[in-house]
Amino acid sequence: MVAASPNNRPDLQDLLAFYAEAGVDEPLEDAPVDRFRQAAPQQQPAAPPPGSTEHAEREAVRPKVAPNTAGSRPSATQPDRPAATAAVPAVTAADRVMGRADAPVTVIEYASFTCNHCAAWTNDVLPQFKARYIDTSKVRLVFRDMPTPPAQIAAVAAGIGRCAAPGRFFDVAHSLMSGQAAAFEKGDGTDWFAAAIAVSASQTGRSGSC
Q: Of 22, 15, 7, 24, nearest to 133 (Cα)?
């Protein structure tokens, strides 16, 4: 999600072009179907004939068209829907942030340390994105945990990140994302976690009680 203020913000087309060049807009083949793909349209049943009981019942519940009092095109009356961004929590001190606090654009990343697409973003795209937008004070990046299966492994990894010493979270994130493929291929996260703990400079280990 992107939230922008009007002052000195990067051009939207520039951001979109960057994502396209990085391949971020390619479909995620193993992503949940209900989140990334639209459901196939279902065939509508035939309308009941006029004069029938079913036709009368359908007409009784059909949305009514509001009067066109402003000279504009009529529209069906519908309850007001909240803006899509209304449910996104505001950035707080509890968030892990990369970049200037006063950057004109905020990018909020919801990611999991067991998500291979999240690892691809961190390993392959983030370095370019950071150099182009974050290091030039155009964007600040906010990282938020969104554990994915295996959730228990993702939660332990997230705990290591949260317990990192000040300023070390993104070093831990890089360690976890870069070592993810090898850890899953090996089927053992012991060395994976140990490497992240070493980078974190934390005194609490991986318990998450920090």
A: 15
Q: Considering only the C-alpha atoms of the chain, give the largest distance between any 2 of them, rounded to a whole number of Å.
A: 77
pLDDT tens figures, 111-144: 999 999 999 999 999 999 999 999 999 999 999 9
Query: Could you report the per-residue pLDDT of 71-115, keeping only the tens digit for each?
Result: 445 444 555 555 555 578 899 988 999 999 999 999 999 999 999
How far apart, in whole angstroms, are the C-alpha atoms of residue 153 and residue 120?
Answer: 18
Q: In angstroms, rounded to a whole number, what is the distance separating the alpha carbons of residues 62 and 58? A: 6
> Looking at domain 2-26+96-200, does it have CATH number 2.70.98?
no
d(CA 121, CA 80): 36
